[in-house]
## 1
Amino acid sequence: MLTTNEIRRQFLDYFHRHDHEIVSSSPLVPRNDPTLLFTNAGMVQFKNVFTGHEHVPYNRAVTSQKCVRAGGKHNDLENVGYTARHHTFFEMLGNFSFGDYFKERAIELAWKLVTEEFGLPRERLLATVYVDDDDAYNLWRKVAGLPEDRILRISGSDNFWAMGDTGPCGPCSEIFYDHGPEVPGGPPGSDDEGDRFIEIWNLVFMQYDQPEPGQKVELPRPSIDTGMGLERIAAVLQGKHDNYDIDLLRGLMEASADLSGVSPDGEYRPSHKVIADHLRATAFLMADGVMPSNEGRGYVLRRIMRRAMRHVHKLGVREPMMHKLVPQLVSAMGDHFTELRRVEALVTETLKMEEGRFQGTLERGLKMLSDETAKLPDGGTLPGEVAFKLYDTYGFPVDLTRDILRGEGMALDEQGFHEAMERQRAAARKAWAGSGEAAWDTVWFDVRDEAGATEFLGYEHDTASAHIEAIVRKGERVGSATAGETVELVTNQTPFYGESGGQVGDTGTIETPTGRGRVTDTQKKVGDLHVHTVVVEQGTLARGESAELAIDGERRSRIRAHHSATHLLHEALRRQLGAHIAQKGSLVAPDRLRFDISQPTPISRDDLMAVEGVVNARIRANTDVAAKVMPKDDAIEAGAVALFGEKYGEEVRVVSMGGQDPGANAPWSMELCGGTHVQRTGDIGFFKITHEEGLAAGVRRIEAVAHQPAEQYVREQENTVREAAAALRATPDGLVERLNQLLDERKRLERDLAETRKKLATAGSGGGVETRDVGGVPFASRVVGEVPPKDLKPMADEMKKKLGTGVVAIAGSWEGKASLVVGVTSDLTNTVDAVQLVRVGSQALGGKGGGGRPDMAQAGGPNPDAGEDAVSAIASALSEAVAA
């Protein structure tokens, strides 16, 4: 029996033998499609190839694409665990033809794979075609020899695929596997549901273009896009009716069972299925740069994690468990998806931390939900307001509420929940607003198609002669721009670096025979088009003119220093904190750098100082910084660090620095990077970490300065120390000692002041203690002026001692608010309760209650002038208590 890993390998090798380029899976975070939350199909990374906006050096490809369907339009989250074939994470096997072969070859390749390579019985296979696709129908008869009763014509969207309302589209042909008459279920296209016929492969014949909705014209170079779910075909080949019984997922379920002590079959099988599936989604999303958070993709990830954690709780486990399953996942899938090995520690620590945090939320939410469902009849509906309160007050995800209700045969008032949600966050709702990447605006595709890619000369040159290829004003192409206008301008070549990889774009000047402009920013559009934002300062800039371009050299030198310092910082962090450190984001600017990393806990001061010391040591060594272009696979094999989730071409630029230590087989720092860097590490000058903070769960941010800004930062810090020392009449070297002296003096004065306030409790008339008999109980009261609330209790203790037996009350004010303390001697607490008395007094102060013990209670209120009223109210309440 083939394992899942062997099936994947066999699929890729088969198409590679048939002249298909094996293309690595693209990240789960789409880089070229702002309409998608996650990559959900194999064709996503080729979308711009199909539309003609991107060109690749091959016309046939094969992939095993990582996919996630959770959140957004395609959301299978809440079905996972309760069906045989729903997943949040799955692999999509696919072969693609970009204007090369078409229907006949696609059908031939598919048929030979499933029958000859995979060995599926021909009599168990049938195909569907679009209702009017006679070509496909005849080809299935000709190529596969399928009889007419095993080729089904189906109309509707199930057998016609479109990229959107406009763009490429075409009919589909699906291959189904027949489990036999002993399994219930009707054929494809029927209303008879069941699992007898299982779709295993979808072939899309992309032969039309839709210039407008409803219009179809033949494409000049039709293409092929296919998709086969790895888990589905593995289930068929391994003789399973449930995807979760294939070797890969069954292994995760059994590991979950071993840790929980609960069988992977029977009543709790859905929980083990959820845990296995959601663990995969969690690990792969984190490997591609998504971290749990409260918005966007991070919020979807947190929902996935918490749904799995709820099922861990359902198994009876009360300690974090999911992180213990990570080694099993890495062992099962890490050979093909090597990124799992790189992030194993990060995934483990983040899961452990998130599960620990969620435990309290889960316990509280489950109790409240249990209390509410107990009020409902069998099959009842939970009010939407209750579900929203669980979500809003307790942080209990609504999908968990829905999941639990489903298990108890109950429903959720969905409309009521959404109405409550809208009322609460109408202004802030943004579940997904897209990536906002203006880089893919249509105008820039048109410009690049005409002008081609911009040749970047900035690695070697600060100036260049160029030719103006296009001028764009407010999204529209124009022929020229005059003084006072701001436009976006494209040249055939440029020394200006376009913002990417965290490095900001260059600024500088542009001059032509007819005008001059100031370049205020440079951006990269559609991958390799450098777009200069230009303020025309004099004359006219026109398309077709020659131009002299010059960057701001001093600004660039500071950017170079900060970018190279970022590489040294990255490597120093990896060596100091561990290999789980991965870049999550960065900013490289002329005045500072910002570096976000995967790190589940705060970085200690000692670690930060050690990292800073290592970076400065590498700077002082003044070793060469080298850049080399090489094949991506060779670079990764040599040890170059790549950013998780980033899409690279087949050729990459590798930047090495920091020298090569004795015995090492690679430079100290080696990263895939397209940015600009110093020539030697000594050019960085000096490096200083200025700040470290948590950005999100599992993500820390480090801010630092280098080069001249680092010197300026140190000077400013020195000036601050000198000014502070002068103000405290100390030398800079003696500043800490002087501060400690002042702190000790302050503590002594605070103690003396507290003692003085205690003595005031026994002061005479004129605001002193007033003692009277209330129903036979001595009652001592005092209204004091500005006294901190924390000092009232010691004063009350002192009054109780002097009184011997009875009740004391002290009302005071502090910073515009009232405070109140009531004390009862121990011999009276059986009949008089200080808490009840202080609550009565609190109402007189405008407060809402109070708390404490029967012998001492405290309260407050917004009215500082009502102390006498509070004391009177307490006396009345005491009289009633004694009389009772």
## 2
Amino acid sequence: MVVSFLWKKGGKMAEPTSQLNPHMVKISCFSADTGFFLQCLKRVFLMLTAQLRTLISGFFCIMLLLSAFSAFAAGPSSEDIEDLLGIMESPTKREAFTRNLKNLLETKKAVEAKEGKGKTNGDEQLFIVRLLLDQFDRISENFRREVIALELMMEELPEDYAHAKNFFLEVKNRPHLRVLFLDAAVALLAMFLFGLFLKRPIRSIIGRMKDFTTKIKWGLIYILLKALPFVVLFIVFDIMFRTFPTFPKGHKLVLFLFILMFFYQLLMAFFRMLLSPDQAKARLAHLSDENANYLWIWVRRFALYAFFYFMITRSLVWTQGHALYFSYLRGFLLLPFPLMLTVFVFQVAREFRIKYKISIDSEQELPGEEEEAAGKKPKDRGRLISGLIRCWPVLAMAYVWAIFLSLMVHYEKGFQYLFHATFWTVLTALIVFVLFCILDSAFSRLFRIKEETKRRFPGLERKANRYLTVVKKSAKIIILIAGMGVVGQIWGIPVSGFVASGTGTLIILRAVTIAFTVAVIAGIIEVNNTIAAYLLKEKRRGRKKEVSQKQKTLIPVIQTTTNIAAGFVGGIIVLERLGVNTTPILAGAGIIGLAVGFGSQTLVKDLIGGLFILFEESLRVGDWAMVGTQSGSVESVGLRTVKLRDMNGTLHIISNSTIDSLSNFSKVFSRTVMDIGVAYREDVDEVIALLKELGETLQKDPEHGPSILEPLEIFGLDRFEDSAVIIRARFKTRPLKQWSVKRAFYRLMKRAFDERGIEIPFPHRTVYMGEPKEGKAPPLYVDIQPRPP
């Protein structure tokens, strides 16, 4: 295959052409493998691009054909053509027809102008997509050109290699090459000998480095001594070149290599004094031996590869080869730099993460006062540091690859663009950081509470600054979003255009509306909670106010219902602002409500029963009641269930719909009824008088007296039992105090009966020995022993 290219002066490639002229050179594809591979690559890419464009063009062509076919199908009839022919033949009708066409054209232009204004908003909404498509087309075209140029370069490579080989093999060039090598060898030998002479002073300098000041002073002297052999190298090489002249370009190339060696040695001397991997006492940086040697290894790697890179690229420039060689070789040699930096950065980031995690774990294990002191560190700062440790490798890698990609693709003004973008990005970050500091300082100063007040009222600070944290974080988020927008604009992202477009304005307005809606809903919920807390307070206006059980139950229910309703309405509004159709949601909620209403009749019965219990105040929390067959202390009275806890601690949960009987033992007041039995031989009046005395004594008791509302009421002799007469008495007490009063009265009664000899009857049993048929029963011998004194 033969390809013709137009070749301009200076070795630059022009566009392909099919015509031959004096400036054209025919280049044969002499390398079968390389040329065939590149040709295939180029053809595949061109074929894919052409197919994509063909598909798009074909789509539009099909649409045009369809529209034309529809227009042809509905074409004019023969009568319409005859009318048009009559108009064209008549001058009067022709002028009127022309005038109508002009009016129609003006009207159509006006309509198109209005439609164009309407389309601008739509175009603004699609400008990002259009920008991406244009960028893709540009990249595709550049890639196609680079593939063609690479093919041409590979075709010319053997010819250039032959020219370079012939240069070194020509007889007339050999003496000049020998002289050049001789000049370089003599200069290197002089540098080596002078370096041996300075070896001992350099060793003595390292031993004199003790403190930081002496390290700086002797470090500069060390770098100077390391540079002196190269001064000798340059002087001797210049003398040798003046004495034995040779190729000027060869002299410049060797001189450039010596300059590279000089800067390499200077750089290594500087980092040796900074890191001092061999001797820790001479190290300027405060690093451990392991870290110093680690950094020294990476410094040597970067320096050696930089030396190799500049040596190869400048040698290629010296040979005056094709510009494409230099471009591709330069890009190929630049690629290891970002790869090495990527490995280095991720290694360092991993060490940072490990050390930060160890420090956090050690702070969590601090005992006592040290733990309290460490716990005072702001949590926001810890989260910020953790986020930076996770994110900085990615940002560093993006920046490194951006720099080297701009170098590899020879991007025009790439460094200038990166420098300006980086500078303004750092400045924006500093401004955002300063605004954060100002915001924190303003909030801490304006809403500060004195330490004395904090000690007096421990919960006052949290109550007074309840929503300030939300406001401060919202302000920080707004500042951060604005800063990110500025950074995006700096790096070429059309943020301002997006904000000014119809879509951007709509998004901002909807965001503001959503924020306002959320703020209103939060305000409603907070006001609702405040009112509920105020109504449930035990003290009001300085006077004690007992909150009823109805309030304790209904107010939280109303509070929760109001909060849920406000949240639901706010959520619907937010969804509408986000563009979600809420009609199906509301319809679904209604259907679910109907299904729940029909399917949960028991629940409705429970709710109705609970409402009646609450409004009638049949039960209150803390009452002792019997609900059905269960009795216990009332722990909860809800709209659906009543919870009782019995004496054994068992919790009984009873549905309100199953309650058919309810007994409250502590409604307003309580009574304790006592049936007191005495022996038949006792004087009832004397016992009644004694009981009244005991009642008065108990009523004066400081512990149980306040619980007794009325004196002991004695009904008299109530009934006769088998072995006792029963006297009934009763106390009126405060709610739930009847049992404690009864127990205290029984204790006093037992003591008084024992002192006065009043018998409290107990069961008696008569043992009958029986009588046999033979006669009387045998006697029962009983051993009666006197009671010990």
## 3
Amino acid sequence: MSDLFFWLLTTYAVGLAALPVAYIALPNLTDRGFGLVRPIGMLVFGSVVWMSSLLKILPNVSWSWWLIALLTAIAGWAWIALRKRTDFVGFLRRRWLQLILTEAVFLVFFAIFAFVKALDPDISHTEKPMDLTMLNAVISAQHSPPTDLWLSGYPIAYYYFGYWMLGGIAQMSGVQASIAYNLALATVAAMSAAAIFSVVSNLVRRDGATTTQMLAGGLIAAVLLLFISNLNGLWELLSLAGIGSDGFYNWLGIKGVDLTDTSTGWRPEGWWWWWASSRVINRFLPDGTELDFTIQEFPYFSFMLGDLHPHVMSIPFVLTAISVIANLLFSRVRWGIGWLRSNPISTVILVLVVGSAGFINTWDMLWMLLALGGAIYFKTYRESGRVHLQAIRNAAPSFVIVGLVGAAFFSNYYFVTMQSQIQFPPAIPTKYATRPIHFFTVWGGLIAVLVVFASAVVVPAVSREFAILRRSITTLGPNSSSYAKFPWIVSVGFVAFTYFAWIIAHYSFNDNAGGADLITRLPLTGLLGAAFVGLFVTTYRRGMRGADDGAQIAVILLTISALLLFWAELFRLHDMFGGRHNTVFKFYYQVWIFFAVVGGYSIYYWMRRHPSFIGRIRYLSVAAVAIATLLIAVSLYYPFAATAGKSSESGTEFTLDGLRFLENSGSAVPEAMDWIRENVSNDDVLIEAPGNSYTQHGRFSGWTGRPAILGWTGHQSQWRGGDEWWIDRNGDVERIYSSPDDAEALALIERYSADYLVVSPNERQKYTELDVSKFDRIGRRVFENEQVIIFALGE
């Protein structure tokens, strides 16, 4: 309990220290960034400690983090006390309720997700061991970049800045990594809830929302983001009740969803039945062979599963970026070099948000540049007398400067340690199309919530602009100007070009491409293409008319969402996985966040507009909300059922310690790990048996924070783009354990400057020719119990 208290207290200290920064940097938001103080604090303090440790100015230790936080707090609060005290007090008096509600959201969601993780805390399967390894790597690193614990002598090649920031909280609070891991998940969820509540509250407040409307929009947005599932829970519930035939579930084609579960309770009881909801989109041959394996995680699934991955850690920072972009669009100060000079704190936060995007989660770079570029262009167009070329000239230089400075600040990652696995060409055509029923299963609930906003804002705008387009085509004179045609030409041209590019690439790259592929691809792709065209036209035209309201941010996010969904149907990143599952995974995850934001705004919009509807429109409005409510209610079944099911599979008692399962298993390994933590220096190199991913190999290094010669081999290939990084090491470690030649083993030990060697059940099982007496000759036993022997080497 004390760990939870000190961790939570540390997050409050970080937020309090960063509050003046947020207040100064985000003056155009009604809450002045209050809901973002923790991610902003983590971003600022993490960036300073990262750069300071890179330059060997400060070490990456607890007191460095506290020092930076303290200096920031002193400077920020002194500035407010001396120059903005009256304004700040007035702000608190005006917005006290909004601020209290935001903090209440953080605490409630933190408590909920800490409880969920305590029910099932084990860091024992999927990629959780890897994530704990990353967290231990950044905690144990004295300087950046941190050493790869599974490839000694090399820095981490993965995007690790999310781990770095959360590792900083662990160091500041003094909480051990195995507990910090689960508290980090709860904190990310809570920060995400507070951040989306802040985003939606600011958007709707700008557009005139009442307190009730603000509260409803913000809370529902948080629920849409973090609590609902896709509609696979509906199919699970129907199959559990025996509703539907074998033919229906065969047609549905979701692996694991059928009539074979004979459970009689309120939820399925099959082993890992809840997994199917993250693997909806697929195609199968009659023999069950998967043709189009994809991943569609959603936030609740991610937090319940417990993989502390970059796409999960990035959620509050994505929402922070949306707020920073909204603050810029809402600003009355002209964009340009003058804006950067006159808003130095805002500029610093903008640079850090943009620069760190790819460092936290590389997939966030695309949407962020599109959203930021669009907002800046619309702002400068409004400020440039509505002259396109002048707007571009005003927008581009400062936009480029922000991007370059951000990339330069984090250049050690982008240009030194990052390794790409992307092959040439970087994008290739997808082979299979998403079935509409699968698309509906993933997106049906969220899209239903968006219908009110889309029908009230987007549809009328598109109808109006299409009428103007028709007149411009059929009428000579001023109405025939390119003003009316431009957004249509750009959007329709882009969709058509992309589709025809896919056709050419499909028949060039993909085996067994047939003529029917064009037909099966059209329904969903055509719908998404049309949605992108309509949203692009709406966003562009509203921007040209000077819109700087919350609705403009909403349509920008919807436009980017349609673009990402459309793109994922036609092209995929050319990575080593051999399918589009990673592209669908990461794009869909971002779209879920955007849909949740716009969904919250849509609720406000409905509450504001519904009383003015009459007649048929009013009935349609009620029907639309009723359908959306029903689908969202159904989507709430899965989180409760899945949490109950998954936690029942864990044999660990209620705790936040992710490694408690080792002690409960009766294994003697934890005792050996404790000895390593207490007696082995952070930069001493271990030798242990490497192995395939998703196994217990690499645990002594990964779970203690001491580097090993090699850990999970498959993940090294993923991170670095090939097996040439580890193939020799794998053979060398085998010879160290198996060779009868002491001299050969010693030479290999010296090659890797190894300090300790572990002999545990893993090594005995993998290396059947292992002779422990050899290590008595070349080393010294420093630890021994019934399962594990640790030898000190080179003494």
## 4
Amino acid sequence: MKTLLSVPPALSRVASSLIPATFGDCFVTHDPEGAKLGSGGGTAHLLREAWRADGESQSFAEWLQRDDRVLVHAGGQSRRLPAYAALGKALLPVPVFRWCAGQRLDQTLGELQLPLLQKILEAAGAQSHTLIASGDVLIWNDRPLPEIPDADVVCVGLWDSPETAAGHGVFFTPRAHPEQFDFMLQKPDPSRVAELSSTHLFLLDIGIWLLSDRAVEVLMRKSGWNPQTGDDGELSEYDLYGEFGLGLGENPTVEDPELAELTCAVLPLSEAEFHHFGTNRDLIGSSLALQNRVNDQRRIFSPLIKPHPSIFIQNAEVACSLGSENQEVWIENSSIPDTWKLSKQHVITGIPENDWIVKLSEGTCLDVVPIGGECFAVRVYGFHDRFRGDLNLDSTTWMGKPAADWFRRRRLPIPEGDDLQKVPLFPVLRREEMNGKFMRWIVEEEPREDPGFARLYRDAEKLSAEELANRCAMERVDQDRKRRLVESLPVLARHAGRSVFYQSDLYRAAELAAPSDVVFDEVSPAASENLYACVRSRMFHSALERMRGGDGSEQEAEAFRAMRNAIVDPYRRTAPVPRNSVLSDQVIWARSPVRLDLAGGWTDTPPYCFLNGGRVVNLSVELNGQPPVQIFARTSDRPGISLRSIDLGSEVSLRSYEDIGAYAEIGSDFAIPRAALALCGFHPDFQSGTGYPSLDAQLEEFGGGLEITLLCAIPKGSGLGTSSVLSSALLACLSELAGYGWDSVAIGNRVLALEQMLTSGGGWQDQYGGAVRGLKMLETGPGLDQTPDIRWLPGHLFTDPQFQGCRLLYYTGVTRVAHNVLSEIVRGMFLNRQEHLRCLEDLSDHALRMYECLQKGDFERMGRLVDRTWELNQRLDSGTCTPVIQKILEPLNDWLLGKKLLGAGGGGYLLMFAKDEAAALRIRRHLQENPPNARARFVDFSLSETGLQVTRS
């Protein structure tokens, strides 16, 4: 998916060095200087320039079909938000939300906008490849997207009041047919909206439009360019919302035969929020609303203790006093010494290091903008200024008062100009000319008369707001912003208890800090004091050390050890004394199915699930008609504990506590049974009470030795959660043997601890997925207690004969150890790495969609959703689909609804859903005739209606 950005000219010229990598494959341009194209013509220009940049090797129509693209209009003059006129809204810095993990400390508005826009486009019909969005609006949507209508034009809308509708475009749909787009009005009077609401529903246009290729070509023609000929003709002014939109619908406001041929629909985002960033007040108001959209203190990572909630400071050093009276204050990329005195309603940007004595009155904004060479433009303006109108008219305000007043008070001639935006107001000065006295003279309402300053202002080159936006030295601004941000990082870390540092993307923070020599001297909290801050601090220092060429392994090991102890410690010295509960000739037999995961995998993995909860959909299955994991246990007259593996053909005798405690040693055989025995009280680390002097003494009191035989009829690296299933079967068997009576929850939670004891980590879905019968969704909330709620689903899609032939399970013969994958992804979780957390959030939402689909019994959609799971797994870990796996899949794709490698991917079992039985036969034939290796084979599977079972002879 590509991103196409329309930005101001100053940014466009240096975009390649300033656009963050998070924008992905990004094309940047600006509207032709001096041309008025409108939103429709601007869209046409952006598309045409992107096509030309790709070399015009394809026709425009072919190029449209080739890729999906998100267009963001982030240019414009920004008259009511002058500080970011040159930068454009896309790169406007936005503070990290106090309730959100994984945001970058240098995040921009565009980075926050793109995820939703990309999700909408990904979910759109096959005919829609183009999404258009307004760059000064952030739509925040926490809910899963509704199904997107299949139409040439799909307009995204929000519910609101008639009064709010008066300032927007408004879509109307008949109450009797709410799925129908009837017509659109631009900024209708509230009384008109109220009148229509008796027959129609209405939604606000939020500037997000999905267009089919056919609709794009119509828009191009309306904007004066013929996509068939691809000529170089000039584009004309055309309004996407005011002209194109008014011609859409069953009963359009404006009749247009060409537009009438396009199908259209409205997509309501019922619980989404609209945040505008078009004015100074919007900048602060929307930032405040976003901070406060979550008030549940359990979900707030940082208290963000500030003198007033509407004070926002970013990439800045502020030493002046701030109190509750300082409201609506935005300070960014600036150095403000303690000699400044602030009031309220300020936007302060770009201020260099200084010792000025400055007092800003209410509503005064100040911006110092680097211009070519070593010069700066000083821009002073009012918080509510609109930068419109004739300077000589009293209705035209600058500094919140009639614009001409500023000149009269300084005995300066009033410049001519019928548009304040184009009047040269802002002096260009050398750094040494910007002293404190001059700055006071320029900002004060009643300045002291000073002929020298008046002369300096009069003789200096002066730029208009329009010229300033074009001549801003963007790279100097960016360098200053990054330098100040990096310098602030140790301060944020030092005050992490009340800053956003530990909740931010720490990988990105390390990337920012690594090239510098900044020193982080904060004291990391102990795990007992704050587990998450402890592990994040250590993992951050590990990442930083690696990026600076060091090893970083010691800090990383401390982080993993802290989490491991948090999970395992509750079971240390708590196991009751095992008591023999079987007769001498009895055998305990535990057998368990394995799990096939359909959606949500990885969300069950600590530490992610501890902070967010997990949500997975999986099913418990038997292979080739039997539960593939089986354990047999009995008492023995022989001393010690004998462990045998039928499938591995090996055995070992454990004669001491040291033998059992060797479970965590590298290369230890029978590590899982050793750890299971320890957890069940056959090791002093886990025994309650005084314990025993030796294993022999404990077994003598127990009534004899133990013989445990394991059968695991699954290849290693299968992706079926075998190690967790084996662990749960072992614990269930030992619980029965020792008379503990543990239920599935007690066993499942201990498996989580057991895997930490082995340092392999892992989530909770494998043990519950195999041990708990049937098809189900398992869900947990935040916290160390990860006992899942289980919601069973109808399993007929996996039992009904009509679907039997379309479900295929294939062992690829390729193995991959999940531990290596797990370590890398868990590292990303510790560091709040943004791309990991966003993907995990998508996986969790996707599990909910799968749950709803299975409730409805839609086999085709289930297959498509499994394919989406596969896409998300690859996004989380690119190694999920190796070249070997890709070679297996490529010939099969045309016959498949969906497929995924089970578990961590990279090898093991491949679950496939064919389009029909004929397609399934073709898949079978192809793989049987062209196996990737000698071990590859099809395996029959059936839904288990029993789950884990334990019986005795």
